[in-house]
Amino acid sequence: MKRSGPVFFLLLFLGFIIAGCARNYYDNIDRGEGYNYRPGYPELRLAATGYVSENSNTYINVAGDIVYGSLVYSGKDDIFTADVEIEIQIIEDTEQQRAVERTTFSKTLTSQNQRVIDSQDVYSFEREFDIPAGNYIVRVGVIDKSSGQQTLRTTKTSIPDPSENTSHITEVRILTKNNNLPDSEFKPATTYDIQSSQDSIKFVFQVTNNNPDRPIEIESRLLKFRSDTSIARPMNFNNYSPSSLPYQGIDYDEYDVIQSSTRQLNQPGSVIIEFAFTDLERGNYRLEVIGNEGSDNEIFKGRDFGIKSPNYPSLKTPEELARPLYYLMGRNEYKDLMAIKDPDSLKKAIDRFWLSNIQNSNMARSVISLYYERVEEANKQFSNFKEGWKTDPGMMYILFGPPWYTDIFSDEMYWSYSYNREDPEKNFYFNKTKLNSKYYPFDNFLLQRSNFYYNIQSQQIERWRTGLILNYNL
């Protein structure tokens, strides 16, 4: 018994060291931003990165995207215009939070196409600011001058000090490009999700080696994690097993190494390193960058991202339009639809599905518009390690629309479609499989399924297929 004391304290000490290393590892992983979607407000997506130039000047790059269809337009002489005001603030990430930079600029967006009011394409802006080394909060606001609505997004970034006698790795920046478009150029990625149509992805980061007596070895690895990509199962099926992949969501302990490389930096100074990849498959990835100055001195940066459908979160291709029909079709009907590989034939099959059930073409057009509007909104609100429409909340949102009331707790979520919070046909309960944290940065809410929901789901599907959904929801 006496010998167990030192052993216990040794194990406890090692446990603290391992926990501290794990915290440091996860603290240095950038996971990009979400969509923060709110109906009726400008949609703003944001990314910010700190850099050191070759001349040891320090600055911050701020990149943003504004969704055209989220703005209010005025039309005159077949020209549609929307006016926005953009404000960028850079604030010291300290207790005082002193603002070190503030700039405001206006932009008038114009189009000759009326469809711009629903377009999910984006206006992109990018600004660079000379900022001293340090940790910063970047705050960007967009005001739609027509509606008066404002959206505010905040992110954090840091700039290493080039004068310190230590080595640093800057944040990893992701740039994407669609090679199928003429004159396409690399643009900053502003969300965790990257469209698979962006078939060229470039990672850019800097390494500063400020110690002339100690060379630094840079190891880079692109990892692809084992993750769930399945479509939500019907409401009346059994609940997912805790050991199943849909329950786990993403397993960071199971991955494939897509590519790895090592580079030795022997001279002091700042070096820009780039990696480029083409045609990455859908899934969830991490680029790891590890700098070694010896066995006891390691620096690390990581950048997580997910490859989604070609035009995510919007739907444009026949395949993108076909896949969410899973919720309205029988198993064999859906299987036959997805077996069609020719895009034109698939589009005709989709049209036949809607028009064969809804005889009135105007009504069919309204139902189709509503259905895919909900799919896109589900993508923006519930996207995680897979497309938002595939999640359980996404399925419920598409079929039943936004809930009247939502109650969210640490590991539970309740949706109600009635003033009567006890009505089992109009109140639904979701369980969160893991708490959202830096170790698991996603919300994975799973519907608590029941055989009781069979009739509810069948009736709702019938409303969609007949067009009654326009007059009666639930």
Automatic annotation (TrEMBL):
It comes from the Bacteria. Pfam families: GWxTD_dom (PF20094). Residues 301-466 form the GWxTD domain. NCBIfam families: GWxTD_dom. This is GWxTD domain-containing protein. It comes from Gracilimonas mengyeensis.
